[in-house]
Amino acid sequence: MSKEFIDHRFHITRRHFLGKVSLGLGSVALGSLLIPDLLSKSESPIQGLGLPHFAPKAKRVIYLFQNGAPSQLESFDYKPMLNKMMGEELPASIRMGQRLTGMTANQAKFPLVGSHFKFNQYGKSGAWVSEMFPNIAKVTDDICFIKSMHTEAINHDPALTFMQTGAQQGNRPSMGAWMSYGLGSENKNLPAYCVLLSRGRGNGQGVYSKLWTNGFLDSVHQGVQFSSSEERVLYLKDPEGRDRADRRKMLDNLAQLNDLNYKEFGDPEIQTRVQQYEMAYRMQTAVPELTDLTKEPDNIIKMYGADCLVPGTYAANCLLARKLSEAGVRFVQLYHQGWDQHGNMTGEMPLQAQDVDRSTAALIMDLKQRGLLDETLVIWGGEFGRTNYCQGTFSAENYGRDHHPRAYTIWMAGGGVKPGITYGETDEFGYNIVKDPVHVNDFHATILHLMGLNHEQLTYKHLGRRYRLTDVAGKVVEGILA
Amino acid sequence: MQRISRISVNLIFFIQVLLLFLLIFEDRIELPAWLQVAGRMHPMVLHVPIGILILLFVFMMFRNTFQKNQFRKVMLLCLVLAALSASVTALFGFFLSIGGDYGADALQQHKISGVVLSLLTFFILVWYQNVKKSMIVLYSSVVFSILVLLLTGHTGSVLTHGENYVLAPVTNKPEETITVENASLYRLAVMPVFEQKCFSCHNESKAKGKLIMTSIDKFKRGGKNGKAWIEGNPDSSRMINYIHLPLEHDDHMPPDGKTQLTPFEISLLEAWIQSGADFEKKMNDFAEGDTLRMLATSQVNARSKNVATVVYPFKAVSSEVIRKMNTPFRTVFPLYQNSPALHADFFVKESFQLRSLEELNEIKDQLVVLNLSKMPVTDADLTLISQFKNLEKINLNFTTIKGEGLTKLKSLTSLESISLSGTSVTKDALTAILSLPALREVFIWNTPISEAEKVELEKAFPKTEFIHTLFNDTSLLALSIPILVNEGILKKGDLLQLKHTMPGVAIRYSLDGSKPDSISSATYDTPISVSETVKLRALACKDGWYCSDLLEITCYVEGHTPAQVTLLKPADKQYPGEGGSSLTDGRKGFTDVLKEPSWLGFRENAFEAGFDFGSKPPAINKIVLSYADNLGGYIFPPTDVEVWGGANAKEIKLIKSIKVEQPTAHHPQSMEALGISFESSSYSYYKVVAKPVNKLPLWHGGKGQKGWFFVDEVFFY
Q1: Under an 8 A CB cutoff, do A301 and B502 touch?
Q2: Is the CB of residue B630 less than 8 Å away from at least one CB of chain A?
Q3: pLDDT tens digit string along A352-385?
Q4: Helix/strand/coil (H, E, C) string of A431-442?
Q5: Are the Cβ atoms of A41 and B244 closer than 8 angstroms?
């Protein structure tokens, strides 16, 4: 019987054959129409680009920002000429039409005033440091002073914004946000960018959160401000009655819901939010060991000074900064307010110096002892300098200085910077730069270079053009690279 | 044998015909997947005809070792095998060529010579089988076929390995200098990107997707799927689309495992296509602010900057491996983009497992920097670490090693820097690794190694830098001031809590206005109970430290609250607070924030307020005024204070009036409490008057002007 079947199969008609074939081909054709187009652009990465462009010298930055503008003439820029010419009028040939702030614009006279504090040379490098900073004076062989910084901004807000975000107008991402975008965080359990604030006893100016904003970058890159109270990060402990496993389950389910939402709306902020929940969860484990300062050995506490155990002080922030940096936080920014000595320089500035001197030197020594100074860039400085003439009633005993954007001093240590040198020079009046000027854009370009980033290539397209930290300027300062 | 021979010859004939047929209709042929597999076996099967033909030649040379009829059989056998394998190889080769991944010109030569070889061997076989003898013809034809074989083989290797493969190591190409002036923007900026990352698969010899990028004309023509770009429209350009696909996608370019394009290079290519994908225009032909010009300039500058890149003796691992290595507690990253060298960091001590370290074995050749700071690593684990032969920098701070394991690290010949701070490593244990050739810095702070031993080490190993304790100041320091925990106004019965963040500190305090000291004053053990507003003075003391500065703070305690408060004279317009109720709302202000509802400011008027205690007034013998003392802000204590009492607002008489001592010099700002005690009374209504200073004293900058009086709370006890 099977043979008949086979024979029958062999006697299939042409019509039948063609019909079957066309059906098969037709279904294949239909299938091809249903395959979705695979050639669509992938989503832009939220986490940033991830790697340095070339071999970096520094892996992390600790920026000790001295808010209010510390006077360079009383700290690191020694100008004995001013003491010799005490009380004499500032020559117009030196001033060269530099604009004045509203505070001194109505002054009839601009009497020069020299530093009330003595200067001395220290270390193999012979760097000049005033008597207000005896501890920093001990570590000058690790420091590179830049005495020729200059900026255009003359008041605090635009100058601060310029130093932090690369432009005098706000809404640009801050330096730390750019680093977070370009390099990400080494330690996934901590934010890439942390901000610690402290107030001094001198005349203070405010700091605003736009100085650590993410600007137009994803909000994942925003600076995380730690609280100044004893609980530096709030709500780290699980609430009563819930344990870590519960939280994990809750977060997993929440992530699923957020994912559904993301698939529907495609809003990258949803992803940011999910990532921040995860980061917060991991911070519960990682942060307590960092903020518990009582376990620090006695010699560390003595090195930083007793204040380092009091949260909210500059010393405590320095110690915490070292711990955060040691744990892999990419950019730690400190702000110490109170340096705006328009008056009462002899009264206030020593108090400010007292706040920062010991712990700043301790930070450098602490990093060096642990073998971290080579890969951590420490920066100390303000937003502009102070004038060599006196603001208000002139008195050699107590005086004030106004803002001076044309020349100011900052210093850097570690992280691939040449130690024990001074870069740039101001004239004997301490007013103009005579050698190697470094603009804020150059400063930024150099920092990015030390972190292994080409400042011209770390860009982000926003509103039709490519932005970068150095905007359209900035040259790497080769002279300070080790 | 005969039958097999006949079948084979027929088979060979069939294959030749099939081959020719396929060649003629090449363009209309679509290859099913299983034949593509056969095509890919071409590089394997081609070895057979090569071997057979050479063997054939060898047999011909040694003809005399065979007997005559033996020789003929052997030759026939070899010829059959040669022809069969050559034709099958050619057939498979044809299948492979349809895949389209090869440059047309080079492929053409190889194809022709391969087909010629296949036909040639067939004809030799047929001729030898049927037409007898003539060794000369046989010899010459075999030699000729070997020549054709060589030609086929050479052209085939050009397809696979590119031109000049064999002699490349000994040939040197002259570098042509290109400058901004004579070269186009394409040549200067865009082509180097292609050169580095695309040309290796898209050239004349190897043209994946039939796209040849090395020749401008061929590049413009595009590949298998058409043109690579659409001028002026990067988003729709195939090349750009492929670049933006996810890495795992098959069509993502460059393919996974090859060096990827940097985001900057991608922007450059997009800008180039946006401005028309021009190959001729020079840099200066573009406008000054043109995007493409700016990107290209940056690219050229970046390359010419000559940032030294180290060449490592090992190759990179795939990005997939690196991704796998990254967990929340272990980070593995290349040192920089496209570097084969990796660094590994470990975080969170509690989550450390030995397995995490063992897993690094997968990248043991690429690991250059290792950070195990604070992890529970022991000497035994150092054996694992010694396998990372190319390690240059290692951080073992605060690990639990004791030093015996350090000898195992002697194999790390590239080690430049080792940090052992906070470990129990002794000088003897350390000497084990100090003879490493590249070692130039060792960190030994907080180890059992003493300063004297460090000096010895420095003498013994002058090329190495030893960093020991840098802070040697043994002078005494002052403690920080104690902290008052209770903020704001305390309720009756609340206890004052003091604390100090440094452990082991004794706090001495006083409540009566005297200055506490470290010997005779009361020590703070338990929280202090207070019944009314007091000025607390406290300091902290500890052995080995100077006592801290004085903490001086007024602690406010809630008293009797009046039912109603009326301001008899209005406060200054700028500082109205919330009217009378601010005085008893239990909310304290801050001295530096005065434009705030807690504060009432008085300058022109005196402070005059009436407090009504209703029908059942309590017994009151003290009133405390909480005021701000901010001399720099012209805010002074009141000069006179009066307390009036009575049954109601109309029937009151003066109970007490005091004059307040005025400051004689500047002092820092603070919150002060002014207490006025009087005979206990139970009046229903009290009036309090406080006069702000009328003329600021001579020592003050605003001498002669009116001063201010700021009050935020009034307490009744």
Answers
A1: yes
A2: no
A3: 999 999 999 999 999 999 999 999 999 999 999 9
A4: CCEEECCEEHHH
A5: yes
